[in-house]
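FW: tagging you since you asked about this chain on Friday. Here's the raw sequence from the shared folder, copied in full. Didn't touch anything.
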Amino acid sequence: MYFDANGGRLRKPRHLAGHQWPSHAIGSDSNSPPALLHWYPMEFTLPYVPTHIWVPWCLRLEATGNGFTYLNGKPMGRYWQYGGQREFYMPDNWLQAAGKKNVLALCLRPLDKPTAVSSATVVPHRVYAEYRKV
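HL: got it, structure written out here
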């Protein structure tokens, strides 16, 4: 769940940077085979959360290809198309405060089909959220 400035709940998760993520191909030109790597940069901001609530954030990801995820320039984990991991914990000390821009980058290499990001959503880990005494 998300919290607005008044502590109310927002019902929809925030999807990252629209529906089409820009892809920056590496290793492709008119004389070479298809690109070896594709970078997908995405930007997001976290909502305001009252100080008495601690919310751990995670990335839910669905994509094709194998590769790595980076949060604000730090390596967050690896993504495997046929692997089991679809959620990635986002360390608090790597995130920018509410209202400030965070950058998530996904570097993918194609496998049996071209790379693509079908879904990337930043959501709170509800199970681990805590209310703290002020």
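FW: Confidence is low (pLDDT under 50) at residues 1-19.
HL: agreed, and The domain at 2-131 is CATH 2.60.120.260 (Jelly Rolls).
FW: great, closing this out.
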